[in-house]
Amino acid sequence: MLEISELRKRFAGGPDSPEGKLALDGISFAVRPGEMFGFVGANGAGKTTTMRIVMGVLKADSGSVSWQGRPLTYTDRQKFGYMPEERGLYQKMRAGEQIEYFGRLHGLSQSAAKQAADDLLQRLGLTERRNSSVESLSLGNQQRVQLAVALVHEPEVLILDEPFSGLDPIAVDALATVLQERCRGGVPVIFSSHQLELVERLCDSVGIVSAGRMVASGTVEDLRAAESRTLRVVVREALPGWADGLPGEVSVTGDRHVLLTTHGDDQEILRRAVKAGRVEHFGVQQPSLTEIFKEAVA
């Protein structure tokens, strides 16, 4: 398990800001084997800084990062797969060569690196672009090559900063499938994203960070359960004033009356709805991750 505990980081300030910027203020979370963790927050919230500290690119002022119950070491990090926010590809090098090259840097033999590169090119839909220079690829295909570089050495942990940025839906599905396969193999995966619908679909657990603090974390189901439940009732051809005195708000479109309420007696509301007209829908409306995020960072 990868554990991040009470990370704090302040960047030095200049003449106009002598106190500097507090980037992290006690960030803590854990990612278990085979778990996909979605790290979400606004720009500047602290996601990239956290990932850079985990990978040893930055040093925390305080706090700790542990792997398998012990402090994370340089040797451990060599077995991690990292996809930085700023892409680090050699633009003149061909896509296949690039992936093989990074495989060799991670200690793979020439034949093993070529085999791994071939497999990843196929899995990510890049086989036909194997001999294309990186600079000639679309941004989406460059993104796929960058992911292949992070995966080529069969990493024990994957840490990906905005891996889905700029990808079309087909590329998103290809990339998501590869990550899910790695998860099923027991690899912990952390990725940041502003695409909350995608995080909600893919992730086992989510951490919402704001101004350097973790303001909410847990499974999407747990985060939903912590929010106020909203009962949604849809009645067709309802009698006028049927919801008078009931809690909540009613909107009317044509013959369709929609009541939304966060409290009240469900059975009494149902009786009133049945008496008023034809009940088309009666059930609890689950908040989306986007709604949970807005509430958490408000």
Automatic annotation (TrEMBL):
This is ABC transporter ATP-binding protein. One of its GO terms (cellular component) is plasma membrane. Transmembrane segments: none annotated. Its main location: membrane. The lineage of its organism: Bacteria, Bacillati, Actinomycetota, Actinomycetes, Streptosporangiales. Residues 2-236 form the ABC transporter domain. GO terms for biological process: response to antibiotic. Keywords: Antibiotic resistance, ATP-binding, Nucleotide-binding, Transport. It is found in: Cell membrane. GO terms for molecular function: ATP binding; ATP hydrolysis activity. It is a peripheral membrane protein. Belongs to the ABC transporter superfamily.
